[in-house]
Structure formats: C-alpha cells, structure tokens
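User: Predict the full complex structure for these chains.
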Amino acid sequence: MLIALLILTAVAFAALALRARRLLTSTLWLAGVSAVVSVVFYLLGARQVAVIELSIGAGLVTVLFVFAISVAGEEAMGARPLLPGVLAWALSILAIGLLGWFVRSLAMPAPPSAEPAFSAMLWGQRGLDVLVQVILIFAGVLGLLGLLAEAKAPLEKSVAEAIMAERDRDLAAMQQRAHDIHREKEIV
Amino acid sequence: MCLIIGLPWLGALIVWLVGDGHPRLQHALATAFSVGGGIAALALLPFTSFEPALRLSMGGVFGDFTLVPDGLGVFLAAVAAVIGCLAVIFSTDYMHGEAQLGRYYAFVLLFIGAMAGLVLTGSLLILFIFWEITALCSYALIAFHNDDPKAVAGGIKALIVTGLGGVGLLAGALIAFAYLGSYDINTFLAEAGSLPALALSVIAFGFLAGAAAKSAQVPFQTWLPDAMEAPTPVSALIHAATMVNAGVYLLARFYPAFEAVPGWTTTVLVVGLLSSLLAAIMALVSTDLKRTLAYSTISQLGYMVAAIGAGAVFASQFHLLSHAVFKALLFLGAGAVIHAVGTRDMRQMGGLGPQMPFVRAVFVIGAWALAGLPIANGFFSKELVLEGALGHAPAWAYWGMVIGAGLTAFYTLRMVSMVFYGEPRGATHAHDAPAAMRVSLAVLAAGTLVSWLLVGLFDDFLGGSLPFHEIEAVTTPGVIGEVFTAPATYLALAVIAAGLLLALLRGPLVGLGRALGPLARFADVGLGFEHLNRGLINLTTGTASALRGAQTGVISWNMVGILGGLVILLAILVRGA
Amino acid sequence: MSLSSPLTIAWLGMVALAGVAFYGLLAVRNLIKLVIVLQILVKAALLGLVLAGATSGQVNLGQSLAATVIVADTVVAVIGLALAVQIKRRLGTLDVRDLSNLRG
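Assistant: Here is the predicted structure of the three-chain assembly.
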C-alpha cells in the first residue's frame, strides 16, 4: 500500500515538474521524483540500486542540471505549445491505455530456486553489461568535455570590419610616409 | 582468431585518429596493422575445426555471436587478410601525396576486418551485419574522390544494387529463424530438410539474389564496371579478391541446404553461365583498362557460380583462390600502369613494355593465369571447373563454359597487346613501378605460379571441417595427373589456342569487326541491363528525395513519430498477447 | 494479476509516470526541460524493471539491469545537456520551434 502511495506521489511530482515555469523549479521536482522512486526501490527489496539511484539521480544529475541551467540561462518560452493540444493528449492517452492493458496481461515467470547475490549477479551473468557501461562512461566523458568547452564565437562582422579598416589606414599612412621621404630625397 | 577482425579494426581507428597531418605515419601504421591481420589469419590455418571457437551469447532474440574456424571460412579469411595486406603495401606508393589518407586507410582496414568476420561467423544474423558493413566500406571507398561526380555516382549505384541484394539475404535469414528458432548456420544446414518446401525455396532464391548482387552476376552486374572509379588498390582488394567473393562464399556454404530445391541449381548454373559469357563479350569491346578487368572479374565469378550450380563446390572454391591471387595481381599491375601513364584508356597506351619491364613481366604472368594456360594456377583451377561441369552438368553448360574460356583468352591477349606491345600511342614517357608496388606485385606473381600446389592441402581443409558438404578427396599429384590426362583438358586448351590465334590475327579481321559494329555498341550499354539498373536507381533516389518533406526539423514532430511507433508496437503486442 | 493487489497499483502507477513523460515529450518547448522529461521517462522504466524483478522473485536480476540503465541514462543526460548548452551558445535560443536546422 505504501509502495502504491509513493508511486502516485512520484507521478504528482513529475506532473509538477512539467508545469513549472522556471527550469530550476523543474529540476527540484525531478530530484523529488528521484528520491521517492529510490525509496520505492528500497521497499521492493532492491537495496543496492536504491542507493545508486538516490546518489546519482537525486544527486549527480541534479547538480548537472543546475550547472547547465546556470550556464545556459533561463528563457521565457511562448505560452502556446507547438503541437495541437488534442494530438498530444490523444497520443499520450492512447499510449498509456495500451501500455496499461499490456501490463495487466503480463504473466510472471516462476521464481528460480536460489538467486545469486547482487554483486555476483552483476559481474557474473551480466558481465557484458559492465563492459558496455565502461564504453558508455567513456562516451560520457567526451560529452562532458563538450559541456565545459568554451565556444569559439566567430568575430562579429562589425568588429572584423573595424579591424580591417584600421589596418588599411595604417598601410596607407606608411605608404604616404615612404612617398614623402622619397620626395625629400629627390628634392635634395 | 578475434585478432583477424580486431587488429584491422583497431588499426582503422588508430590511423583515423592519427590525422592527416602525418601521412608517413599513417602509411606505416596501416601497413603494420594489415600485416598483423594477415599473419593472424595465416596462423589460424592449422587450427581449422568444425566447432565454434568463440561463442558470446547475445540474449535469446539474437542468438549467439559465434566465430567458427572451419576450412571454408579460414581460407577465405586468409585470402582477405593477405591480399588486403598486399594492397595496403601497394597503397603506400599509389596513394603517395593524396589527401585524406586517414579516411582511406580506415575504411580499407575496416573492410578487411569485416570481410574476415563475414566468412568466419556462424550466425546468419551476424553474417548479414558484416555483409552490410562491407557494402558500406565499398561505397565509401568507391566514392573516395568525392569531388568527382562519376565516382560518387558509381558508389551510390554499388550501394543501392548490393543493398537490394542484401534484402534477399535478410529475408532468407529471417524466414530461417522463424522456422528453426535459431540463426546458427550449422543448425540450418543440418535441418534444412525439415523446412516446408515453399519456405526453403524462398530462402534459396533470396540468398541467390543476395549473392548475385554482391558478386555482380546477371542481372545485377552493372555496378562493378562503374565501381572502377575507386583507387586501384581498392579495386584490387574489394572488387577482385574479396567482397565479390562473398557472394560465391554464400552460395558455396549453403549449397548442401539448397541443392534439393527444384530449379535452384539450374538457375545458379544459368546465372553463372550468362554472366560469364555476357561479361566476356563486353570485355572484348571495352577500351578502359580497369573496366576490361572488371568485366573479366564478372566473367570468372560466373565460372565459379556455374561450377557451384553444377555441383563442383571444391572446384569453384579452388578457382576462387586462384582468381583472387591472379586478379589482384592484374589489378595492381594495372594500377602501376595507370599511375605511371595517367590515363585508363587503353587506346592511349601501347608500347609500354620496354618502358616498364617489371610490370609487363608480372602482368603477363597474371594474364597467363587468366587465360588458363598451363603452369599458372588459373590453368589448374579452370580445368577442374570444366571437368566438374563435364561430369555433372548438362552438355550445353559445358560447351558454354568452354566457349567462355576461348573468349577469355581472346580479350586477355587483346588487353596485354594493347597496353604493352606495339607502337606507343600515348605521348607520356612512363616510369617503372616504385619499390613498394613491386613488393606486392612480386608476391602475387609468385603466388600465381605456385598456389595450385596447395590443392591437396586445401582439399583436406575443406573436407575435414565441413561435415555437410561432399568434398571428393583429392591430392596434389592426383590432380596434376588427372588434369594432364583428361581429354577435356586438351579440348579446352585447343579452344584457348583458337582464341589466342584470333586475337593475334585481329588486324586482318578488322573487316569482320566493323560488321559487328552495332553489336559492339549494344555491348557498350551492357546489353540492355544498364537501362534496367538505371531505372532502379532513379526510382530509389526519387523516393528518397520525395520523403525529405517529412523532415520538418522540429523535434516535437519527431517525437510524434516516435510515440506513434510505440503505440503501433504496443498494439501489435497486445493483439498477440 | 488481480486488479486491487498493491503490486498491480504499483504497475499502473509506473504506467502513469510513463504517461506523464509521454505527454511531456510532445508538449515541452524548452530543450533543457525536454532532457528533464527524458529523465522522468527513464525513471519510469527503472521502476518497471525493479517491479518486474520483485513480482517474479528475481530481485537481483532486476537490480543489475537497473544499474546498467542508470549509468546509460546519466550519460544521456550529460550529453543532452552539453548539446543544449552548445546550442544556446551558438544559436541563441533553446526554443524547439526555432531549432529547425535539420529541415529537409
């Protein structure tokens, strides 16, 4: 019962995250969803992944978002959504309906006799997954470099033109001076 | 064994990352990795076996990722890796001074690895994936000079035609999976008899379509001559020695499963025969050196395909080995000539013999083998093919092949004399091949002269590790004896001699040639097939252009598409539940 | 599964969470908010995985899969945010309607 209640809380938080005006508020509601979901994990008996989800979802990802939002800045969006509202609602409800029906008709397999411990399972049966995770993390690091990179903005056109004009003037001045010196020499 | 695939792929990544600022380093690294791959492949030869050497489970849906080092696979992987390594050595001189070497070497090494994977894998699905990777590399390398519209057009044509063939392969694989529940090739071969006849026929012809498209057989043969826009080492590697062999490999490996399908072997025989004769005719009138070699490739592949149709699987694979070696030799030799003279047009060559003695010598050795003259490996393998046809195939097929052999001799001598003998028609003075090119050419020439000695060993490989194929046991001395004593051999030699004679007497026969003028023009447009293929390509590109309107660029519409797809998927699942 | 057992409500709750995320995917205009919505969707998926593990008794299998998904989804968040930041710097806006450079 508690589990069901918590999940509904999570749904509520998610809806609030969607409706929030400011991005920072959205991020905080997302952190809330993460926390609630990790408690649900714990209550379902998945202790290790509850800890992982809490620290990464409610911790790392939230910090990441705050960082990105501070770099990118808030922006006021137009109020009207892009797609016709009917289409969005219809498609979502259709998807939920089908998903719900699908979930209702699931048949669960019989539990195995004895299950290995979490770490044994992770490194043993799902070993290939761990290999893939390493590659993913590598990709993520490369992505992070993109997040932190300074953009080399092209020189604004007016600034570039000003520099060119100044250079032309200097060149003309030098040529004039050379011409004058030459004239002086001739006269002398 | 993973090294055969892994080393070239690792090399591809590293050469690309080194960047185009260090061309000498790129040349050196590419050579090192390809040689490594070649050595790994050769080292694998003593270890052929029937059982998979590597089995990684990819979950219930996709089956296992297996690598099975059986005789056929290891042999072809060795061919791919060794000729690949020779082509890379050749490229260090041919591509000297070219831009974007990173892209070139990366794709060549990627291709070598993918080809090795294609022949070594034991899973139909992985076979398809490697198949498509080789098609992608082929496209990228044909269109390497991507500021040349002819090259780009050639690349796209190759991609579309071989891609359509790949659809046949995929369809066959999926149907097999639907019935047998597994992608494993050996399982398929064992239980092919248990499939319903219609399903097996569909699979058989689907695979045939895929193989025909990949190996440039009728009616898919027009992409190969246009693919000659690629740099010559690429032509030697991909379009003579390896990728086009993938189709023949497919047919050879699945022959035990499909030989019982009514009409299949006959279709294979007809396709092979038509291709070889058609291509030989087109080679007679071609004036572009590389195109002539392309036509001769199609023709020789036709021989191999027809041999499989006649049931002589061993002969076809032996001819594949010989052909890979001498065709690579011919292409690399042609590359040396083109590099020196600057043009591919044979009418502007001539009299190059005295100027390029080394290249002339190796080219003549290759041509000797192509024409099927004694001592070179082409002679032995061609005779085995002809004998197989005599034994198992209807008489018209045998006579067709013999005529083909005669035509082959004719156009080969024509090509050699136009390029190396006679009065110099071109204006440029040509220099002989530089050192790196000579290395590859010399190794291949040596191979051409001696590779037939391996026939006994080769037969042991195949016979020992392919439980589903019936391979007659032969030994090297046995083959030599057989070939020299069979009357069929002398018949074939007589026809070849006739072809050579006709070529020598070309001058006086010019009047006859003029009478055949219209035929020549018809042959120039590929006997009508060109129109068919062009229509196909226009259809594909037209549809692609029309669909561009659906890409609005706004992400919300893309989301609609994704969600819509999810809804459809769920509907299907719910329906099935 | 029976309609009123707590686990069924949990499953339906997961579907509802996914539903919120589906609607968000279609209706959100700010790119960073879109990444937030993606995160919500992935949390729903994680919930599904762990629920499946719990209802079938294979909790540790569910956990192992969920751990992999968390790693993957964090990487997705990192790259998505990196993209959003770079887009804001070069194109000046995060509004989805104005970002149609991939048109055609």
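Residues 233 and 428 of chain B are 23 Å apart (CA to CA).
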